[in-house]
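Below is how a single chain appears once it has passed through the pipeline. First comes the sequence as given, then the structure the pipeline wrote out for it. We keep one example in the README because the format questions we get most often are answered faster by looking than by reading.
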Amino acid sequence: MKKEAFNYKGAFGQPIIIREVTDKVSLPMGGARLSRIIIFAITLFIMWLFRSFINSIGALMPGLTLVLYLGVPFFLSGILLKIKANGKQLHYFIWDYLIYLFTIKIGKKHFANDQETRYLSETTQFDYDSNERKSTDVN
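Resulting structure:
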């Protein structure tokens, strides 16, 4: 009997779905993705921080405040889940970008041939007429 390796990427790549809150309360339409619930909560919190501006927009029509506080985070979370930046899901891309930003970009690290190089304060210029090296100070 020939053994075959099974690829678990598809099985483990499935989103986590919450179908029941308690034994008696279940979510409609087959449940909700956990990532969508988290993005919804973060968006709602950001909107709550700017509630004076959002409430002033919501005062234009009766019921618009409810639509803004529930509709905007719901549709925004759906749009953000569909974005695939560099083939990654959005939260993985943002995490990787923040690590790059804080460790490499803000840390002013330089790499050559996949190895970290030390920051040089002087530039080196080569004269094409001779093999002599001229060094100039940047400061």
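The first strand starts at residue 17 and ends at 18.

See the next section for the split statistics.
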